[in-house]
Predict the structure.
Amino acid sequence: MLTVLPRRLLGAIPVLLVLVLAVFTLQKLAPVDPVAALVGAKASPEVYEAARHKLGLDSSLPVQFWQYLTHAVRGDLGESSVTRTPVLSDLTQFLPVTLELLFVALVFTVVIGFFMGLATAQGWRGSGVLRVMMVSGASVPVFLACLLGMLVFYRWLNILPVTDQTSYVDAPTGPTHFLLADSLLAGRPEVFFDDLYHLVLPAFCLALTPAAAVGRVLRSSLEATQRADHTRTARAKGLGEKQILIMHSLRNSVGPVFALIGLQLALMVGNCILVELIFARPGIGLYISRAIDKADFNAIAGVTLAVGLLYVLTNIAVDLMQSIADPRVAL
């Protein structure tokens, strides 16, 4: 683990540099004038030139890229032309809502996926039905899962809410902007459980397709591991199947699952924007939809960089978990 972490951190630097370069290039190619978006289309030439100089747009492209890179490293992502506040401030408000949804969805993904993989690989009772569910879950679009979930659990059963983050209008808003954490820090457990209650349905819909993929990969990996020589040796020693599964098969089978979870995270982040719009959650889905509608490129670039950084950090964490599960990865 100690040898994997420095290598992965160093390897993430060129990835982030390429991401910043791509965002900078798209900003230059986009048919949007950032100066006009900031000062307005009817601003005087003097005001326009002053704003252009303030943004550094009168410099050469290499100088502009260097300034953009240094500002991004410091967290200065510019000002949103919609909210008229720094993009970083907007991200600290909207991004925690999305991260909470992603975290709960990731928990659902791991729990459901591992249960399906173990059940189908071991041939538990009803494993045939679970196989059909895995295939069906992998083929259901996320928007259709959301609509079906709203129809069943809200319209027909009326047991789960489908809008907003919480029912409490006086819910705490700080200091972390993570409602699950802020509610506990404020001594409001009722808000904590209400937030979880509102997260169940959108997180389940978001996790449905990744969980099916995790279950299928885990089942295939377990079946291959159980036919390996070390597993047959463990059986020859008289170990029980459950002991073999936990001590030998599972640990040697989770490597491909961790790699898949890292890949599925990118899909979950993209789908998270759609899920937030459907369930009216005030996350980056709402923020970036407004930014796209108003051609707010600073906000779009800020969300892109934040999501890219999140994806890189998550894959580093996945690599670390792989090295813990299989020390050969660190070689």
